[in-house]
Amino acid sequence: MGAYIAGVKPLIKAFRGKHCGCQLHTKYESKEAAMPKNNSKTQNPNSKILIVEDSEIQAVMLKRLLTEKGYNVVWAKNGAEGLQMAEKERPNLIISDILMPVMDGYQMCKELKGNDALKGIPIILLTQLTDIKEIIKGLNSGAEFYITKPYDNDHILSSAVFILENPVLFKNRPEEKSTEVLYKGKKYKISANRGQTLTLLLSTYESAIMKNKKLIKIEEALKRLNEQLEQRVMLRTAELNKEVEERKQAEKFLMESEERYRVLTETANDAIVCINEKDAIYIWNKKAVEIFGYTAAEAIGKELHKLIVPENLREKSEKGLKEFFKTGEGNITKKTVELTAIKKEGAEFPIELSVSAMNVKGEWHATGIIRDITERKRLENELKDKLDIVERFNKLMVGRELELGHRKELIKKLEARVEELEKKVADYKAQVK
Q: What is the pLDDT of residues 207-230, one digit of tens each?
């Protein structure tokens, strides 16, 4: 666009002919050319400006801008209302949108320029510059001035001030063969026929339109990308919310699991002791305190084998432990064994031990379930003694039963001998008779 502006001056000098009767001003021109030299609030505080805009928001914003500068501003919602208000209010300037219901800006402009009483009112058309046909329609409608949307507040204000201060420069006079234009504070007289002027106008604006289209496409692409980004952000936010919820659930489950484990270990009927690869105790439950006499504070962090293993068994036990920490296997893992342990006061007592292996972050840990079997051993010994007594009694009873059987056999033999003698006596008596 900078190249276009820079090329205007030599193009103006190059074209000579009839006057087209139009003045065109874009937002790309220097503000120095458009702004009046006097920086007072306004040059003509009694000037009346008619805004024709169907968008209430845009109309209110533009009205506020002009009112703050001291202008008397009226507003119409479409082209038809604009014609009626122009007839009634006779404004010094009309600023009109193009696309409106009932009657658009082109038709309103054409109607105004066809009215002898109103055709002298300069008109600024606000255009999106989306099609070269917009310029042709604007020229055919007789508008004097064009500003591209979206416009800059300073630009539209300076344009209004300039038109109101120089109304003669902006009158459409097709009967004249030449006209003067102001560019960057200097006046230029252009002599060109209507065809030449329109060709220049259309060609320069075609370039502006093409660039504007590219900007619109870029804006639309950025909008799409922004929407996609927002969509991705929404999706990612939903995923993160889901992950956070899952993490909360996992943390809750972990806390509940840890609480259950704590309750389980603290209420267990057996001592539960865990050690790491340095033989250091890090779990010592309530039953362990009861069995060995050491509090948790006294036991945790200490070496297990120096704490509860009798001195005469430590060397062998420590050797097996080193092998366990290398492989997770040992001669007492995955089974229950009976060993001797030592209490805090130094008394040795029998225990039953079950050892399981845990791999924590690549390191082997051991969990021992320990039961004090002192009472069981006492009962076993007592039972053994009683069994010995029963065995001796059984042996005695067997001897007696054998002797009794022998006597019974002798009695049977004696009984048989008696019967035999009685029979012989009976036979003898019978013979004697």
A: 577 677 778 889 889 989 998 998
Residue 325 one-letter amino acid: F
Whether 19 and 177 have beta carbons less than 8 Å apart is answered as yes
Which two tokens mark 73?
Answer: 């501003």
- Report the C-alpha gap between 24 and 124 in whole angstroms: 10
**Buried-state track 53-88, b at ≥16 Cβ within 10 A, e below 16:** bbeeeebeebbebbeeeebebbbbbbbbbbbebbee
The overall pTM is greater than 0.85: no
Cα→Cα distances 172→21, 54, 169, 186, 321, Å: 5, 27, 9, 20, 107
Report phi then psi at 19, rounded to 5: -90, 135
DSSP secondary structure code for residue 137 in this structure: H
pLDDT band at 34 (very low <50, low <70, confident <90, very high): very low
Q: What letter would DSSP give residue 64?
A: H
Residue 109: CB atoms within 10 Å: 25
In the chain the first and final C-alpha atoms are separated, in Å, by 176
- Cα(209)–Cα(206) distance, integer angstroms: 5
Place of tokens 């201060």: 165
